């Protein structure tokens, strides 16, 4: 097994014209760590993932994968180091599962290598990892949402990277498939020492599955630490803008949230001043 | 998969055979005799100097247009893209007509026609690119702008023709698309061009397959989507220009054959690009054979010896009907 790779985000600012998104983010994800990013819609979570995957470049600051500045790596070199599972993907008529997963090998094979016939061992392993070998020759468009998400995870795994970034991997799934996807990620990370960063909307999942929770608000990191330290009523109010209580899971010991009602931003400001 | 290719190849042979005997004035028996080394000088001339090159040009042009269409649809992620509706074909026609009118190109300088068609095709595609602006990602928007661009380019072509009419009859045939009167010269010009750009398109099969999955996924998987798309568009324009220079603006082949090819050979462009080439060749050749047979019937019915139906008229009518099906079936959901 090759060495795990960490991610260093150093003083990153990023924005679109007239709309700053990240306003100075510093974050070090240690090699082999499982980190959850949480925050409201538009707080910059997905942007941070895209910066780490090299799909966007910071206006200020830099993102390092191991020793390398992502902005200086070529697209293919980046894709060999980091895989990103997007929140949603367009339909691809006529594409089979095996074929979509094989597309994850692009960076490893190159344009001419993609003309070669057949799966390599990594593709077979990726299909096995998420348990989709049995229907590898079915059309992706004919699958259910949960099955498709597993296939897309397999495509990201086929990139065979040390770093795996997941942007809301469970958003459109039912509870069964949510747990299915998350447990697969946890298992693979333990087996292979992958460094995983995932954006999660569900604080319950973050508290249960992540080792570390990083909370973003308006483009800044406002909380960072183990779930037990971070998940508090104060975090619910400040980051997610809900009033609620926090308890502890009697068996697992991880924090459990009981959100009560949303609070308006103004109300929240009044609470702290 | 091999069986599908074989079946299609067999169909191509059948279409080619029908095409060779479909013309007027010679019975299939005579054609067979000529192919076996018999026949008199006139019959030999008709078969070897007129019918064979015409057949080859039909096959080649069909393959070019179909591959160009599949490349366009994949690169733009747009099921409604095709050389006819993205300004490439009308641009190529305008380029070729203008060059001919200016005396820069013509029957004596066939390569100049191809180059002029290429320049025009690029200009047409660029015009669409600029006009569509932010709507580029949206298939419907691009299609609407494509119609607009095609109309403008068609109008410009008409203006050029009004100023410099040339031989009106041959020009009209050319605007509709026809294989009538195509000889070895056309074929010798078409095949190297088609081969070079066809191979180039096939080498892009990997990136193009990835582009079909959407830019986000393609970028994350390590493809420089912008560069790949530019190269792919170049291939598509060149292939279209080659076909237009050879047979004129044959309608709907580039728009519809790719859908057939993807349905039969799947979304893996390593297979569906050659598949599209073969399907396009079969469709154009078959349509040309059908056009010749119906010309014969019409000629008897209307008692007019000179009537010929251009193949482009037939493909346009068939294509319009098929397009309706595609539009109704096109998915717009995401997952």
From TrEMBL, chain A:
Listed Gene3D superfamilies: P-loop containing nucleotide triphosphate hydrolases
UniProt domain ABC transporter: residue ranges: 7-243
CDD domains in alphabetical order: ABC_Iron-Siderophores_B12_Hemin
Keywords associated with the record: ATP-binding, Cell membrane, Ion transport, Iron, Iron transport, Membrane, Nucleotide-binding, Transport
Pfam families noted in UniProt: ABC_tran
Signal peptide (residue range): none
Entry's Gene Ontology molecular function annotations: ATP binding
Membrane protein topology class: Peripheral membrane protein
Protein localization: Cell membrane
Entry annotated with the keyword Transferase: no
PANTHER family in alphabetical order: IRON(3+)-HYDROXAMATE IMPORT ATP-BINDING PROTEIN FHUC
Protein name: ABC transporter ATP-binding protein
Species name: Streptomyces prasinosporus
From TrEMBL, chain B:
Keywords: Cell membrane, Membrane, Transmembrane, Transmembrane helix, Transport
Keyword Transport: yes
Gene3D superfamilies: ABC transporter involved in vitamin B12 uptake, BtuC
Transmembrane segments: 55-73, 85-105, 111-131, 143-163, 190-211, 231-257, 307-327
Membrane topology: Multi-pass membrane protein
SUPFAM superfamilies xref list: ABC transporter involved in vitamin B12 uptake, BtuC
Cellular localization per UniProt: Cell membrane
Predominant cellular place of this UniProt entry's protein: membrane
Family of the protein in this entry: Belongs to the binding-protein-dependent transport system permease family. FecCD subfamily.
UniProt-recorded name of the protein: Iron ABC transporter permease
Taxonomic source organism: Streptomyces prasinosporus
Lineage of origin: Bacteria, Bacillati, Actinomycetota, Actinomycetes, Kitasatosporales
């Amino acid at each position: 097994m090759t060495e795990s790779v960490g991610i260093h985000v150093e003083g990153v600012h990023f924005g679109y014209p007239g709309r700053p998104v990240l306003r100075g983010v510093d974050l070090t994800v240690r090699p082999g760590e499982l980190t959850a990013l949480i925050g409201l819609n538009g707080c910059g979570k997905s942007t941070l993932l895209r910066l780490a995957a090299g799909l966007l470049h910071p206006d200020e600051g830099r993102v390092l994968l191991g020793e390398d500045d992502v902005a200086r790596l070529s697209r293919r070199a980046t894709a060999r180091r980091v895989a990103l599972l997007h929140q949603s993907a367009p339909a691809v008529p006529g594409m089979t599962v095996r074929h979509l997963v094989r597309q994850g090998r692009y960076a490893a094979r190159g344009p001419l290598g993609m003309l070669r016939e057949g799966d390599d061992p990594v593709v077979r392993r990726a299909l096995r990892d998420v348990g989709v070998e049995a229907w590898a020759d079915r059309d992706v468009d004919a699958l259910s949402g949960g099955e498709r998400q597993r296939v897309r995870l397999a495509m990201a795994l086929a990139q065979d990277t040390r770093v795996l970034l997941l942007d809301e991997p469970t958003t459109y799934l039912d509870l069964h498939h949510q747990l299915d996807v998350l447990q697969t990620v946890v298992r693979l990370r333990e087996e292979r020492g992958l460094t995983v960063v995932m954006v999660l909307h569900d604080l319950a999942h973050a508290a249960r599955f992540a080792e570390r929770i990083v909370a973003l608000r308006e483009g800044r990191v406002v909380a960072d630490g183990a779930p037990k330290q971070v998940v508090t009523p104060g975090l619910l109010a400040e980051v997610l803008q809900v009033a609620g209580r926090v308890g502890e899971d009697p068996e697992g010991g991880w924090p459990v949230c009981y959100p009560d009602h949303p609070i308006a931003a103004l109300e929240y400001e009044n609470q702290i001043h | 998969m091999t069986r599908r290719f074989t079946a299609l190849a067999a169909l191509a042979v059948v279409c080619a055979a029908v095409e060779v005997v479909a013309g007027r004035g010679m019975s299939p028996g005579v054609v067979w005799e000529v192919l076996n080394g018999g026949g008199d000088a006139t019959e030999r001339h008709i078969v070897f100097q007129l019918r064979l090159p015409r057949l080859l040009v039909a096959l080649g042009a069909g393959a070019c247009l179909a591959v160009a269409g599949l490349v366009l649809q994949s690169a733009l992620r747009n099921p409604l893209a095709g050389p006819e509706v993205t300004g490439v074909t009308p641009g190529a026609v305008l380029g070729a007509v203008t060059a001919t009118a200016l005396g820069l190109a013509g029957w004596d300088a066939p390569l100049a026609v191809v180059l002029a068609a290429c320049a025009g095709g690029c200009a047409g595609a660029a015009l669409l690119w600029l006009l569509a602006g932010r709507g580029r990602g949206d298939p419907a928007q691009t299609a609407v702008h494509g119609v607009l661009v095609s109309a403008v380019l068609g109008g410009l072509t008409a203006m050029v023709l009004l100023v410099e009419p040339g031989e009106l009859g041959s020009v009209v045939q050319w605007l509709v698309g026809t294989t009538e009167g195509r000889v070895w010269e056309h074929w010798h010009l078409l095949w190297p061009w088609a081969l070079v750009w066809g191979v180039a398109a096939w080498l892009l099969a990997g990136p193009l397959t990835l582009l079909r999955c959407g830019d986000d996924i393609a970028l994350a998987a390590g493809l420089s989507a912008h560069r790949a798309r530019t190269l792919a568009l170049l291939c598509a324009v060149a292939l279209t220009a080659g076909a237009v220079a050879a047979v004129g603006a044959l309608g709907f082949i580039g728009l519809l054959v790719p859908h057939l090819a993807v349905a039969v050979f799947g979304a893996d462009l390593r297979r569906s690009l050659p598949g599209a080439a073969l399907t396009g060749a079969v469709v154009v050749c078959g349509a040309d054979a059908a056009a010749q047979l119906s010309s014969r019937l019409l000629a008897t019915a209307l008692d007019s010896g000179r009537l010929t139906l251009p193949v482009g008229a037939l493909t346009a009518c068939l294509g319009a009907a098929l397009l309706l099906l595609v539009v109704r079936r096109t998915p717009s959901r995401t997952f």
